[in-house]
Specification:
The protein is an alpha+beta fold. The chain folds into two domains: 70 residues, SH3 type barrels; 193 residues, Thrombin, subunit H, CATH 2.40.10.120. It is built from six helices and 19 strands.
């Protein structure tokens, strides 16, 4: 019976390659075979896969993993993944509690001598995303991992942190750590900005005020709120100092933004996040923002030039004002209090009588 099941799975794996849609899941079996199709159900007993001509139920104990697949070959997908550094997947909708249990280890705490922020892994090679303002002007950076051991988490601090790229304009930074040999990193998957809608439930994970691994929940208030230089996702999920650099996720566990600020000190429900499409472009063109420790200007944001006065009456009026530097010192001016009072001066006679000439 076992041999027959294996033969049927092998035949199904061969036929599914010919009939699978352009975008579907890849089911990797423990015996090395691959089945491509749309996963209709993923249960404890079996996985149901639509092959196009039939629905195949695969015993769950024979499934090694389920991955998103495209028309590209596995080799091409792997090369593209390595080039872009991040991963994407069509994940299942779950509760916040389940998603935190699955992806919570992907969060890290980013710490410098002057600031504490958050970040998250984007692949298993130790690359992590955070905000540029968290590490702005700093070189002594440490990253704290939260490793799950049983029902609790232990902290593992890594001080060998490399700054790979920084873009202060969009407030993003790319870090890389040397992964401890006994730790398996949990990367987070990127979502699609096109799927972000107003009113959509979201949640954030971070370290606000140093309270590690804090979870806050809310909705998308606006998917494209205009800021000074870019568009931001506005959310009601509470965002506080220390959340900066952490992920904003949807109910599938996909990262849709990087939390970076809140509006005002006393405002509530006015959090903002850098949209995921900015993150993708930052990673794609990371060489343009590469950090060079020997260049003191790398990663720094230049101040804007002073505002020039507009042409018009105000400028003309200002131009005719006397230069204070050319004015005489008031200390050298005679004291008006020492001047004689004009009221006490003898009045000049209105006329003088000339003496009459004598004959």
């Amino acid at each position: 019976m076992i041999k027959r099941s294996a033969v049927m799975l092998l035949v199904a794996a061969s036929l599914s390659v010919l009939t699978a849609p352009a975008r579907a899941e890849t089911v990797r079996l423990k015996n090395g075979n691959i089945i491509t199709g749309e996963v209709l159900a993923d249960k404890a007993e079996f996985v149901a896969v639509d092959l196009g001509y039939t629905i195949l139920e695969i015993p769950r104990d024979q499934v090694a993993s389920i991955e998103q697949d495209t028309a590209e070959s596995a080799e091409q997908a792997e090369q593209a993944e390595q080039k872009t550094l991040y991963m994407t997947a069509r994940l299942k909708r779950r509760t916040v509690r389940e998603l935190v249990a699955t992806f919570g280890e992907g969060l890290v705490k980013v710490q410098t001598p002057k600031a504490v922020g958050s970040g998250f892994f984007i692949n298993e090679d130790g690359y992590a995303i955070t905000n540029a303002h968290v590490i702005q002007g700093e070189t002594q950076i440490s990253v704290t991992l939260f490793v799950k051991e049983g029902e609790s988490f232990t902290r593992r601090t890594v001080k060998d942190v490399e700054i790979v790229a920084v873009n202060p304009v969009v407030d993003l930074a790319l870090l890389k750590i040397e992964r401890p040999q006994d730790v398996e990193l949990t990367p987070l998957y990127f979502g699609e900005m096109d799927r972000v809608k107003t009113g959509q439930p979201v949640f954030a994970i971070g370290n606000p005020f140093g309270f590690e691994r804090s979870v806050s929940e809310g909705i998308v208030s606006h998917q494209a709120r205009r800021a000074e230089r870019m568009l931001l996702i506005q959310t009601t999920a509470p965002i506080n100092p220390g959340n900066s650099g952490g992920p904003l996720l949807n109910m599938r566990g996909e990262v849709i933004g990087v939390t970076n600020m809140k509006l005002g000190v006393y405002s509530e429900g006015m959090g903002f996040a850098v949209p995921i499409n900015y993150v993708k472009d930052f990673l794609k063109f990371r060489e343009a923002y590469a950090y060079d420790k020997d260049n003191p200007n790398t990663g720094y944001q230049y101040l804007e030039p002073p505002h020039m006065p507009e042409e018009g009456a105000e400028q003309d009026e200002a131009s005719i004002q006397p230069d204070e530097s050319t004015q005489p010192d008031e200390s050298t001016q005679p004291d008006e209090s020492t001047q004689p009072d004009e009221s006490t001066q003898p009045e000049e006679p209105l006329g003088r009588e000339e003496p009459e000439e004598t004959q």
